[in-house]
Design goal:
Structural class: alpha/beta
Distance between the termini: 29 Å
Strand order of the largest sheet: 3-2-1-4-5-6-7
Largest sheet: 7 strands, parallel
Number of strands: 7
Low-confidence stretches: none
Strand content: 5-15%
């Protein structure tokens, strides 16, 4: 693999929700390419520390930051710490979310606000704080980890999550349009059925084997495959890709 595909030397990335699963894979992939990486989590410091340690043992540089990204002040502080530690922030990957299964009329006002605060607002907070630093350097990459809920109409009883996932891509398009002249791209990566550790109590309505049988590639995706899409977008290879949604789903649904 040539450097233009993988080199992030001199770049610094923040990856939210990167203690496990897709976020962890993205953090490791960017670090492997030479980026300094801020590993973020909210509740489980042990998993964040483990990713930081793994990056360090492989010769990379990483900083673990425990922060509740549903708080604008916490995100702003994380960005300040990133710049203080590494001198810049060049790549921001927003990867946090909860997936509640609730009939629409059972969604309380608090439920609605909690999901928006967790799934959508953090991406706004992140962009609001990193873009000034990216504009100074005339280079930046923003990636939102969306979800097939926001694109595929066959998902029921998830109105709040669907709204947020669609909103993430809407935000990507708005940022791409406004900040393209500053050398900043913004895109969404949309995982399909990925083999991750999750709260299966929220998926009791789904049959794993039925889902697998519906995927043309015949299997669930890997977190590394989602990370590879992010690497493509964040490297120089992604310089002319902006405002787009990259679907990583094995052909499960197509556009």
């Amino acid at each position: 693999m040539t450097e233009r595909f993988s080199s992030f030397a001199g770049r610094t990335a923040i990856v939210t929700g990167s203690g496990r699963n897709i976020g962890r894979a993205i953090a490791l992939a960017l670090a492997e390419g030479g980026a300094n990486v801020v590993v973020n989590g909210h509740r489980d410091k042990d998993v964040v520390d483990a990713v930081v340690r793994e990056i360090g043992e492989a010769g990379g540089r990483a900083l673990g930051v425990m922060a509740d990204v549903s708080s604008h002040d916490a995100v702003a502080d994380m960005v300040r710490r990133t710049v203080a530690e590494f001198g810049s922030v060049d790549i921001a990957v927003s990867n946090v979310g909860i997936r509640r299964k609730q009939p629409f009329l059972d969604i309380s006002l608090d439920d609605w606000q909690t999901v928006l605060d967790t799934n959508l607002s953090p991406a706004f907070f992140m962009a609001r704080n990193v873009i000034p630093h990216m504009r100074e350097r005339k280079w930046g990459r923003i990636v939102h980890i969306s979800g097939f809920d926001g694109f595929w109409g066959q998902v029921s009883e998830r109105a709040h999550n669907i709204t947020c996932k669609a909103g993430l891509h809407g935000l990507s398009k708005a940022l791409a349009r406004e900040f393209g002249p500053d050398g900043i791209t913004a895109n969404s990566v949309v995982p399909g059925a990925i083999d991750t550790v999750r709260d299966w109590s929220q998926y009791t309505h789904q049959d794993r084997e039925q889902i697998r049988s519906e995927i043309p590639c015949g299997r669930f995706g890997k977190t590394d495959e989602v990370a590879a899409a992010c690497v493509f977008l964040c490297a120089e290879t992604g310089a002319f890709v902006s405002g787009q949604a990259i679907h990583v789903n094995g052909g499960h649904y197509m556009y």
